[in-house]
Amino acid sequence: MKCPYCGDEESKVIDSRPTEDGERIRRRRECLRCHMRFTTYEVVETVPLIVIKKDNSREPFDRQKLLNAMLRACAKRPVSFETLERAVSSIEQTLMSSYDREVTSVRIGELTMQELKQIDEVAYVRFASVYQQFADVESFFNELKKLMGNRSK
Predict the structure, then answer these.
(1) For the chain, what are the domain ranges?
(2) Burial category of 57 from C-beta neighbours within 10 Å (exposed 0-12, middle 13-18, buried 19 and up)
(3) Distance, CA of 20 to CA of 2 (rounded, Å)
(4) pLDDT tens per residue across span 62-102
(5) Alpha carbon distance, N-terminus to C-terminus of the chain
């Protein structure tokens, strides 16, 4: 870290502590050449996830948008907000750990259906009906049969 007083690049850290918001680290440093002290802040550099939509347009991943979709699927169901928050965090963590900075909306939909299937089967079917764009009652019924078949196993 370059000293703001003499420009030397050698310094030592005297004190480190998180900021009040917990988003950054505040470091007190001392220049090894002029012995002046100065403060630096360290932040985590994040690379945003980009979602490739079905029409090939791209937009930044929006955690709130995913949470809202899951809330709609779970409307009037006995599913807590905290459960959905954890599910969204799990999906986001899975996406972030994949090293791909671009992810398809199809992949997000699949991960969401996996989470909802474990949380609440009715919410899963609601989400699947919109996500998979069931064309008719038969498509809907086929998905229900698959779900019932998995339940008996």
Answers:
(1) 11-43, 50-152
(2) exposed
(3) 25
(4) 999 999 999 999 999 999 999 999 999 999 989 988 878 89
(5) 60
